[in-house]
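Submission sheet (multi-component)
Chains listed below:
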Amino acid sequence: DQQVKQNSPSLSVQEGRISILNCDYTNSMFDYFLWYKKYPAEGPTFLISISSIKDKNEDGRFTVFLNKSAKHLSLHIVPSQPGDSAVYFCAASARDSNYQLIWGAGTKLIIKP
Amino acid sequence: DGGITQSPKYLFRKEGQNVTLSCEQNLNHDAMYWYRQDPGQGLRLIYYSQIVNDFQKGDIAEGYSVSREKKESFPLTVTSAQKNPTAFYLCASRGNSRMNTEAFFGQGTRLTVV
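Outcome: structure written.
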């Protein structure tokens, strides 16, 4: 029973264009969401987060959008760069689950030259 | 520099042997975590510790053991009881596990059973 789902195993985007990574969740108690980036054989690195009291958070080229009614969040990367090629994980946590991070399966982003 | 260090990066184990993965952090974080990553799957929680001398089982604790004798250290032992130990293991820490904060990860240890 996956509470956090990333339904696209991979995504290919042209360099310079916008990359949109999607994440759906089922637990309405989740109140904090995070995106991580992971290169092969390395640990994930934190990218950006959003609290459920907001619907948008922006940091440079990265913007996360949260649609609570649809239980959906997305990460926008614009413009996409070759170094953005990696696996992206979304994660969520809830106070009533002891703030444990629940992870999606990841989406592999490939930036084409 | 502050961070989390996992060692070794690559580890080979013979079937039937126990092996211990090291995780050290100098971030002064209270909470530490062990995850396992398999191809095509998200991170699955093995064990976590919110404070020294205390730890809790995660979703897939069978065949693993941990200790938390020092705030900086959270070693993971993969025992012979773990039926499918070949995986990528990740250690993480958080400043405060009782609020919404990001986790910081080590570089990972690739364990292969030969």
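Remark: The mean pLDDT of chain B is 92.
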